[in-house]
Amino acid sequence: MPYLLSFFLSGGVVLSFFAWIGKKVFTKGLILPFQFALLGLIVTIRFSIIALIISLLVTVFNKMHDIFDFFNLLNVNNPEIFDIPFKILHNLGFFSALQEVLPLASLVMLTFFLVVLTKITLDTVQLIARELFQIGLLTSS
């Protein structure tokens, strides 16, 4: 009789079998879907941040173009109202300086945002690698 009870007690074969099945079900049934969901959430958030930065760049460049068009339109339609301020700015060289600096500034801004996007991408790849390593550790045991 004591030999039969040893199968069901703390060191028994039956108990260790059910503990092994419970561990497998817990890791594969509960933790792994959570890990994959977390991985998908990380990738989705990072892609949305990249899309947001790109759309912000496009919007800023379009608005700058719209502002320059607006000033040109005001100067053409109402020359008497904006004649003196535009002549002052033109004599100071504001428009020529802006025309020369804008391509350089846009290149610098584009490079800065490219560096930011590269950092976001590298961080995302590192997070994905860490999550996949954790998933590998969970499934190997």
Write the layout of secondary structure elements.
Elements: H1 2-5, H2 13-77, H3 79-92, H4 94-140
* Arithmetic mean of pLDDT: 76
H/E element sequence: HHHH
Question: How many β-strand runs?
Answer: 0
Low-pLDDT parts are: none
Number of helices: 4
Task: Give a short account of the largest sheet.
Answer: none
Backbone structural class: mainly alpha
- Rg, nearest Å: 32 Å
Helicity, in percent? over 70%
Distance between the termini: 34 Å
**Shape type:** rod-shaped
Strand coverage percent: under 5%
Would you give an account of this structure?
This protein is mostly helical. Helix content is 92%, strand content 0%. The chain has helices at residues 2-5, 13-77, 79-92, 94-140. The two termini are 34 Å apart.
Summarize the structure.
With 141 residues, the protein is an all-alpha fold. 92% of the residues lie in helices and 0% in strands.
Keywords:
single chain; 141 residues; mainly alpha; 4 helices; rod-shaped
